[in-house]
Amino acid sequence: MAEVKQTESVTLRIPSDILCDIDRIAEAAERSRSYIILRALKGYLLHEGADLLAAIEGRAQLDAGEHEDFDAVLAEMDRIMAGKVA
């Protein structure tokens, strides 16, 4: 059986000029305002938002002690490379 997506209602203040563009796009695409706004938010989350979420996750990993010392990593790389050259 298909999973039902949960939705929540959000109140948002949008500048008039941006809302006008959203309405024009929605009319041309024969879609709702909500559809256009949701697509824009998904695009944001795939790009800039994804970068921010990755930074948040990285900080959480550092706080949890899940990291490697950079100098130790470089030293290990040097050892590996030296072994392949010899």
In short:
Helix content is 70%, strand content 0%. The protein has 86 residues and is mostly helical. The longest helix is centred in the middle third of the chain and has 16 residues, at 48-63.
SSE order and pairing:
Layout: H1 16-29, H2 33-46, H3 48-63, H4 70-85
Task: Please give the alpha-carbon distance between the first and last residues.
Answer: 59 Å
Structural classification: mainly alpha
> How many domains make up the coordinates?
1
Let me know the average pLDDT: 90
Shape, per Cα inertia axes: elongated
Explain this structure.
The chain has 86 residues and is mostly helical. It has one domain (16-85). It is built from 4 helices and no strands. It has helices at 16-29, 33-46, 48-63, 70-85.
Question: Any descriptors?
Answer:
4 helices; 0% strand; 70% helix; mainly alpha; 86 residues; elongated
